[in-house]
Amino acid sequence: MQSNMSALARATPLVFIALFVIGLAAPFFIYPTFLMKILCFGLFACAFNLLLGYVGLLSFGHAAFLGTAGYVCGWVVRDFGLTPELGILAGTLAAGALGWVFGSLAIRRTGIYFAMITLALAQMVYFLALQIKATGGEDGLQGVPRGHLFGLIDLSDNLAMYYLVFAVFCIGFFIIYRTIHSPFGQILKAIRENEPRAMSLGYDVAKFKLLAFVLSAALAGMAGATKTLVFQLASLTDVHWHMSGEVVLMTLLGGLGTVLGPLVGAATIVSLQTELADTVGSWVTVIMGAIFVACVLAFRRGIVGEIMALVRRAGIR
Amino acid sequence: MEIFGIPSALFGSQLLIGLINGSFYAILSLGLAIIFGLLNIINFAHGAQYMMGAFVAWIALTRFGINYWAALLLSPVLIGLLGVVLERTMLRKLYKLDHLYGLLLTFGLALIFEGVFRDRYGISGQSYEVPELLQGGINLGFMFLPIYRAWVVVAALTVCFGTWFMIEKTKLGAYLRAGTENPQMVQALGINVPLLITFTYGYGVALAAFAGVLAAPIYQVSPMMGSNLIIVVFAVVVIGGMGSIMGSIVTGLGLGLIEGLTRVFYPEASAVVVFVIMVIVLLVRPAGLFGRTA
After folding, report:
1. 3-class secondary-structure state, position A144
2. Which CATH number belongs to the domain containing residue B124 in this structure?
3. By residue range, what is the domain housing residue B99?
4. pTM value > 0.80
5. What is the pLDDT of residue B294?
6. Cβ distance of B115 and A289 shorter than 8 Å
7. Looking at this predicted complex, what is its ipTM?
8. B22 Cβ partners below 8 Å, 6+ apart?
9. Which residue on chain B is closest to A119 by alpha carbon?
């Protein structure tokens, strides 16, 4: 078993390098806007997975962070003329701050209550977004300019925009990867496995949970802010609870608690939605629901989890 | 006549709407609490089942000419049976896993139900006529009271207190409470716990469908009517805590009234007031008003 694990561990950097090269080359083969959508949702799902997969906290309100960051980014870029990188930064910080507020409230309860509290808080954000004038209500925040990165590079070119999104994804992914594999990440996993034990070892469990929550919220915000620049629009869809459910589905389908699972899940769901939108119309929701049910009943490891289990089993034989 | 400088008719009608919403919160959070007590899962499909309850009544009337009173019985039975099937075929497989999987499964089911009805009936609402016996209203002097609305409050409260009575005072209720405390022990005493669980889920779901039929003549019958309501009910459940049956009823009614009052004095905040109260309760008393310390 030990040698198989190390075989997997040895293969990991190769997989990352291969994926990085694919990411660099991809826009020359596939429609860049589609790829950007996958990367934004991939980062969103990875950020969500940091919380559910590694701390065991199910947040059913992550759309609030995606959406709020999108609105803040769109607002400062369009109405104050800030450059795109500052817009993304502003969105990320806003989502982190909101995450701190949500987190300090939600970690007062655990398990199912935690999920309901985050859902209710996110619904509050949804109602606020619906009523406040600055968000444009039902119309959303339209006509956000992509602008010039650092005031120099014109992002209205799809290829330039793609490489910015790719860079943002890599930064976010690297932060998550480093967090998971740091002593901090080990403590998070200890909390997931046995909270009373972690507490008895002297760790301030509440503080660690809150930190993880803020980090996850901020990174979800980074994805949301970037998404606003790509589509030049921040809308109510991004703060709706359907979005919170979608990110759960992406993570579950790809593989809960695996590093690459959420990206795979996001790519699968985004492709499915794009593919199905033309053919089946409103049945998309039904199909998403059916995938949800199938994942929970029969496919709890997810795509990446199953592949890893297969590799391990093959190694034993 | 005026109360706090507000015309009494407006005041009264908003309070009545608050009371009606409160009745729905009470009946739905009661169902969630019963299901949670025995199954340890949060039934996310509760809102969708409420919606389907309303749709069954509407389809029964428009397609088959089955009237309101028959639908009030038929719809909870049909949707309750659907609940029994779901419990037997799907939920049962999850009891040994983390409780969160139950939430995720029922969320998926809610998406399926909503999607099917949206595809079939679109997003615009269908109207359901108030039954003849309950049409019209009474002038109370300070306000006009539509009879149907008074009926909804009375019917919902009757069902709530009937459920409370069943759980607290009957033998079946005693099994249920014992099953919540220690299912293994109850099973060892020769009581069929799996059957009890199935019945409980079916009953909780039937409560949601009953609320749906009550709601049909007041709100538009639409595929989305349940999902927005259920999130507010989740907040109600967090505020009340799921430890006590009476707690769910009282919290539901109280929050409905507070929401009604907010609509009178500061309408902009009425959509979020329940969530704000949830935040305050979490800060002051994290276990919820009637909850045991978790």
Report:
1. coil
2. 1.10.3470
3. 2-284
4. yes
5. 43
6. yes
7. 0.85
8. B252, B253, B254, B255, B256, B257, B259, B260
9. B231
